[in-house]
Specification:
The chain is mostly helical. It has a domain of 66 residues: Orthogonal Bundle (SP0561-like), CATH 1.10.3910. Strands 1-2 form a two-stranded antiparallel sheet. A hairpin with a 5-residue loop joins strand 1 and strand 2. The protein is globular and about 25 Å long.
């Protein structure tokens, strides 16, 4: 993290060193190479999809280093099905969208 001073001389930390994208979610799309932390930061509505698959990425320190493809491989999930469900939730932004059950 980088530290800077604002007008009130309070310490303000930026997240530049944490690989958190500065673009808005509409400026980029889901990719298998996206870091899990970036995915959850950009689109928090995907968290229930991950939890439904018993993925412990939420709150995991490794989420800053593992890609979506890494996580799918680690949890033995089909990457294409996972990405389809994540895309559906991202595009519709409706938490009540049914997701495919994958174990």
């Amino acid at each position: 993290m980088r530290q800077r001073k604002d007008a009130l001389h309070a310490n303000v930390y930026t997240l530049a060193a944490m690989n958190i994208p500065e673009e808005t979610p509409s400026d980029f799309s889901l990719s298998q190479r996206m870091l899990m932390a970036d995915l959850m930061s950009a689109w928090p509505q995907v968290i229930p999809v991950l939890l439904a698959r018993r993925m412990a990425c939420v709150g995991c320190d490794m989420a800053r280093f593992e890609t979506l493809a890494d996580a799918a491989r680690i949890y033995g999930l089909d990457l294409q099905k996972l990405m389809a469900d994540l895309n559906r939730v991202i595009e519709n932004s409706n938490p009540n969208i049914p997701i495919s059950e994958e174990k």
